[in-house]
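Thread: "does anyone have the structure for this chain?"

Original post by V.I.:
We have the sequence but no experimental structure in hand. Need at least a predicted one for the grant figures.
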Amino acid sequence: MNKPPSQPMQRSSGLRLAGRPIRIGAGIPLAPDRRTPVWADIRSAAESLAQREPLLGARLRSLVLANDNLGAGISAVLARRLASEDLDEHALRELFTSVADDAFAEKVAADLRAVRERDPAGGDELHVLLNFKGFQALQTYRIAHALWLDGRTELAHALSNQASLVFAVDIHPAARIGTGVMFDHGTGIVIGETTLIEDNVSLLQNVTLGGTGKEHGDRHPKIRSGVMIGAGAKILGNIDIGTMSKVAAGSVVLQPVPPHTTVAGVPARVVRQHNDDSCPSVEMDQRI
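Reply from O.Q.:
Generated one for you, tokens below.
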């Protein structure tokens, strides 16, 4: 199959699923302060949980209730998770807070919503924020990527390495990842340097987005909006995975995947065409 031309991140709209609109590429407008609904909901849930489970009270006060906005909250959570003998929690928290501006908080909110809507075990946003390591690994990547773009590549690599050790998720800080992305479970996900993941994509555990050998340059997959990649799938090389397509669990993909299709097998082949309004990343239907 011929490789499709490179495309910019898509910003289409008007798709519907279960009677509600799905806006591929759309983020969630959010000013990260206590008045925003998502942070107000998280704080309210934390207050309630602290009353029900006193053992968690100190944790909830430190990571949630002591913070006035979503950026500060995610910074506190990640600093606590990633701190080590030679990475001071307070210093990490200051670094993360310096990165977690309004635009960063919008991405965090979109990722929170993605987990809440797509994972039946996800619970509320507080649960995702504190306990979902796939979500936490993705937000750590976002900070490392900001450092990478700022020219602080050594620190970005160090942070990515620490995240790999803590979360078992390995993301090169130069990769480009959109918003509304869910890493379900997270364990074993590997994302290479020149990978592009557009908005509203879902990946399950042990997914590899890698190269095919020792080539240099642009050598990793381009995952378009609305794609779902099943557990254990390997996508190798600079190939497009077309918008709103599905890669079945355990597949090895070596050729471009057309939009609105399911591929499966080793090597992967097209096994089904989808309706244009079917969005696999939201439906999360694991069946072929």
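V.I.: this helps a lot. The chain has two domains: 29-168, 179-288.
O.Q.: and The mean pLDDT is 88.
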